[in-house]
Amino acid sequence: MDVKQAVDKLNGLLPLAARQQQLDTELRELHKVILVAFVEQGRPLPITEAAGHLSQHSVEQAFQILAQNDLIVLDVEQQMIMGAYPLTYEVTPHVVEVNGHPINAMCALDALSVAPMFEVETNIKSSCAIDGTPVSIHMQGERVTSVDVGDDLYVGIRWQAPCGAAAHSLCRDMVFLLGQEAASKWQQRSEIEGSVFDLPTAVATGSAFFRPLLAGSEP
User: Fold this and answer.
1) Cα–Cα distance, 133 to 195 (Å, whole number)
2) Coil, strand, or helix at residue 103?
3) CA distance 99 to 141
């Protein structure tokens, strides 16, 4: 499967860019502000700051619409943003250090997407989903500058329709796999269709999938 096919398949399961484009201008811009806040500040956008970007919607209404479109993950009780693909305040196996802040990515593909999406430098700490071997990846934009475990690192994606928020379903099975043996074991573990991508293909896929979310904004 090439990059275009993979992006098309992702958009079929989780059409983030299409959902964003269906929003009114105010909500589209708020979504971009939320994304940038994760990268620049290492935290979700507070309610007070969100309110400053809204004139046509209340914060509660804006957050609910974004959450209903699965563009953000919301703590409903506290009305607090927990995540906005590709980053989250929830604990995951994938930690991305960006702009001096450690923040979690929702999945392996998301972790690889932060640097090219925002044109920043990142350090990724994760592990192989099969044997737990730690993995460290350094990126500058779309360029992978170092991988501590060498070139035999892959990303596995199970093509399953999200159940509820994709962050808690689809994303759970987008993982790092160290070596062909681990990749083969992972593919055999489930009846759900899965694809394994080498690192350059995974980076290009993530970049093409997420970059449209910032179109027309300054990251």
Assistant:
1) 21
2) strand
3) 13
Tokens in use for 59? Answer: 């914060």
Q: How far apart are CA 58 and CA 50, in angstroms?
A: 9
Here the tokens at position 152 are 């035999």
Say whether pLDDT at 45 is over 80: yes
Query: Average pLDDT, stretch 39-52?
Result: 88
Which CATH code of 3.40.50.12160, 3.10.290.10, 3.40.50.620, 3.30.450.410 fits the domain covering 87-212?
3.30.450.410
Which residues, at least 6 apart from 12, have a Cβ–Cβ distance to it below 8 Å?
none
Amino acid 92 reads T
Q: In the chain, what are the domain boundaries?
A: 16-84, 87-212
Q: Distances in Å between the alpha carbon of 4 and those of 75, 111, 207?
A: 34, 19, 11
Mean pLDDT across 24-28: 94
